[in-house]
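Protein modeling request. Please complete all fields; requests missing the sequence field cannot be processed.
Requester role: graduate student
Desired output: 3D structure, token encoding
Chains: 1
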Amino acid sequence: MNIPEDLRYTKTHEWVRVEDGKAYVGITDFAQEHLGDIVYVELPEVGSEVEAGDAFCSVESVKAASDVYSPLSGKVIEVNESLEDEPELLNEDPYENWIAVIEMSDPGEVDALLDAESYAKHCEEEEEEMA
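Delivered output (131 residues):
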């Protein structure tokens, strides 16, 4: 399982990369692996306000539909429109293919997210519970 060191994570399997005050958000390798083949992504609306922990879009796979939760509060300023025609990009490289960009209203929220080591431990615990 791929867990890049330079990202922050949520317990609901989203990742965040902060660049120039903007937060790029996507789903993790763990999430796409457990979802299976992704067939549809419902992107959030540009301009919509999101709160940390709220569902802001959804991903559908051949197995199930799953909400994607915003790791941070702020405004959606961009979405990855290529996912509309090629949702499978999330399976191919979930860290290169972000879902949305959020203009953060409180950059301090990033500090509350998991680092790579803590996220890896969380995934191991979840795997044990599923077994």
